[in-house]
Fold each of these.
Amino acid sequence: MALVYLNGQFCAPEQAAISPMDRGFLFGDGLYEVVPSYNGQFVGFTLHIHRLNNGLAELNIAGTPTLEEWQNICRRVLDSHEETNLGLYIQVTRGVVAQRGHAYPSATVKPTVFVYAFPIPTPRSAEITSCTPYRVVTQQDQRWQRCDVKTTSLLGNVMHYQHGREQHSDETLLFNPRGQLTEASTSNVFVLCGETVYTAPLDNQLLPGITRHILLDLLHADKKFKVIEQAVDKAQLAAADEVWITSSSREVVPVISIDGVPVGCGEIGPGWLHAFKLYSQGKFNY
Ligand SMILES: Cc1ncc(COP(=O)(O)O)c(C=O)c1O
């Protein structure tokens, strides 16, 4: 039977219940991670837990599992499923309070810890024919100033993503008020211009994506492309040869049109194929 984990217990999903006084429900006061696994092998597990721990420290949430405890919890949830390719959803909130109030409650309040797994598609083979490219739109980023924190308060992201869907597109790329491309509503963005790959540097305007981290590391080691962590502006984006988005669940996806205008020649490019081959071959080393 497929199990979920909630606060020390493994149980059927319908038996897992959370109080409406949980600060995750009341304030979105919590963090999450999504970790992919293929045939029981995780991609970037330690990197995901490290990012979670950074966020927890930032929010002063203590008393969460150690890396080894996370591994045991996640392994048991995975093993309770029959499917071989699973995404793990991990959520930690500040916990349940007696009274609603903005201030952090006393340290005696224990965090709520939840893990469940959901089936994900078999990874695509690294071939142009097995890839469905994205068509995307752009918007000015309307979210808060701490997009580096992977909070469950995702309404800004949800609204940007929904805007894209309503335009019959697959994702929404986001520009800051200075007209620089930072990330997208649910993914990081890479831009290939000639032999140089650009992606925005890590700061408060974007999530430090684990797929971004892995791909950057692989591109640096590979040396085919020059890699620069620098945000591109609208003119540079319009002149790009290729654009790719990255996220744990979608890996590396080529973008062939932005706001209805073709990227490069409007087809999946050889740069994406090279990058995706690197990612496919290297991802389990993280
Ligand atoms: C806003 C945003 N940026 C980037 C990413 C990509 O992060 P990762 O590669 O860790 O999945 C995500 C994934 O959820 C995201 O929501």
Note: The chain has two domains: 4-119, 128-285.
Amino acid sequence: MHAITIEQPGSFTWAEVPDPTPAEGEVVVEVTASAVNRADVMQRQGHYPPPPGAPPYPGLECSGVITAVGPGVTGHHVGERVCALLAGGGYAEQVAVPAGQLLPIPQGLSLQEAAALPEVACTVWSNVVDIARLRQGETLLVHGGGGGIGTFAIQLGKALGATVIATARESKHAQLKDLGADLTIDYTSTDFVEATRDFTDGRGANVILDIIGARYLDKNVAALAPDGRIAIIGMQGGRRGEFDLGALMTKRGSISAATLRARPIPDKARIVRGVHERIWPLVGAGTIRPIIDRTMAMSEAAEAHRLMESSDHIGKILLLP
Ligand SMILES: NC(=O)c1ccc[n+]([C@@H]2O[C@H](COP(=O)([O-])OP(=O)(O)OC[C@H]3O[C@@H](n4cnc5c(N)ncnc54)[C@H](OP(=O)(O)O)[C@@H]3O)[C@@H](O)[C@H]2O)c1
């Protein structure tokens, strides 16, 4: 088969590589589509090696058709159309996946469109709902509202009955409002802490989904409501920082920080089950839809990464082998 290989940090080659074979508990999927994630950009640059046992090629999600079923797998068959959460290897013609990371194609979506969902659905579900326990009537602040994660988080927040505030460059605001954002903040010109407080009558956000990390620690605490929860999933603003713990304690706030890729396989299977039970019906009903900026050939993966690094996209960039 062919896959995107990284022979030197920063560069991609669409190269011939050995076909995957399914290990115990795995299936092999012939890839119809994969999607670009920020983690793939870091992997290409040499900053984010795949976890042990994962395929060496980038790609954290895909959709496609099962072509082989490994020992010990029950409930799946050759020819089944699926999408999957991957630890790597989506930028390829075929990929081996633990069966617990498979999801059916949601009702009403094409096989290709379904590739836009597994990574964002699992990340947002596990951090915003499973960890931060967003509840109906609360306010969710989503940083990076225009990205793949952000466009999904806005829709999920609304579906759960929350008020949603999103930060993004202004050119993206109209689309984020269409997705349900109650307030959009241009973080390049407006202080999101003040805007969030004003919009919530001084209370602040109950849950903050953060992709910036160190640079926003103090500001996120300042924008947080009493008993609020900050869920950090990215470090686009650095990994080491200082913040006023006293301010967090006064609010009885909490901060979580979690990455999906490095989680043990049974943990991922649990998250995938939660997504299947709670999120897939919302997708099937059209309440949440995949937001796809554009679709590109897998051989153009380097160009797709340049687009992601420019942040000029809204939602997901799909890659087709
Ligand atoms: N922990 C996990 O398990 C996990 C899983 C998946 C993703 N992530 C992380 O989540 C983040 C988003 O991923 P993604 O795939 O959605 O990437 P993406 O599509 O590139 O979205 C990132 C967005 O951030 C915006 N942005 C940049 N600086 C910002 C700032 N200071 N304030 C608000 N927005 C800002 C960019 O748009 P504008 O600047 O144009 O508004 C862009 O839309 C990444 O850091 C990624 O590593 C973590």
Note: Residues 121-257 form a domain with the Rossmann fold fold (CATH 3.40.50.720).
